[in-house]
Design brief:
The structure is a homodimer of 107-residue chains. By secondary structure, chain A is of the alpha+beta class. In chain A, strands 2-3-1-4 form a four-stranded antiparallel beta sheet. In chain A, a hairpin with a 4-residue loop joins strand 2 and strand 3. In chain A, helix 1 packs antiparallel against helix 3. The longest helix of chain A has 14 residues. Chain A is globular. The two termini of chain A are 20 Å apart. Chains A and B meet through strand 1, strand 2, strand 3 and strand 4 of A and strand 1, strand 2, strand 3 and strand 4 of B. Strand 4 of chain A pairs antiparallel with strand 4 of chain B.
């Protein structure tokens, strides 16, 4: 993911997902699949992510808290969440936020 | 930065800073200095970040919007912001959020 999410005027919502990996086997395929699946959910606004050897940070943006709840409960996503806890992640933090203000700079 | 921020019970605030670099010369020294300086500001709760070749994501956590404003206006930080626009960044997005809910997993 190399571009910024094209989000509307605030308010909107963000899910900050910070993770430390344990096992990368099969992870990237699942992450790509989940990104593709998320992107067609109602209320999805965009996604930004970066990963290095120590930490991964993914922020997804959503129109509403209801859209976040619906994605959380999506059957294929739930399966990926289970596999994540069993296999891929050493630890993670999820924070659900209301974006109140934003600012963009482009050269 | 390899650890998760130790944030309190929500609500608290997050600043999501997503960036694409143009020039890395002198950047890491300034980034390290700003992290050190931010960490002693009143109301600072923690910071998480990851960077790869395409994108950098840094999320800092704060007790209040007032703490974020004070950090934004800090003299040394303002100088770093100016240098960032002149030199280091191709583009960036800043989003100020209220964290309403969080969840942690650790193996």
């Amino acid at each position: 993911m190399s571009e910024f999410a094209k989000t509307p005027q605030p308010p909107y919502y963000a899910v900050i997902f910070s993770s430390q990996m344990r096992d990368m086997d099969g992870y990237q395929e699942m992450a790509d699949k989940m990104e593709e699946l998320a992107s067609v959910q109602k209320g999805f606004l965009g996604l930004e992510s970066a990963r290095n050897s120590e930490m991964g940070m993914t922020v997804s943006y959503w129109e509403s808290k209801e859209a976040i709840q619906a994605w959380k409960a999506h059957a294929e996503h739930k399966l990926a969440q289970q596999l994540g806890c069993q296999k891929w992640y050493e630890a993670f933090a999820i924070r659900v936020c209301k974006v109140e203000r934003d600012h963009f700079f482009e050269r």
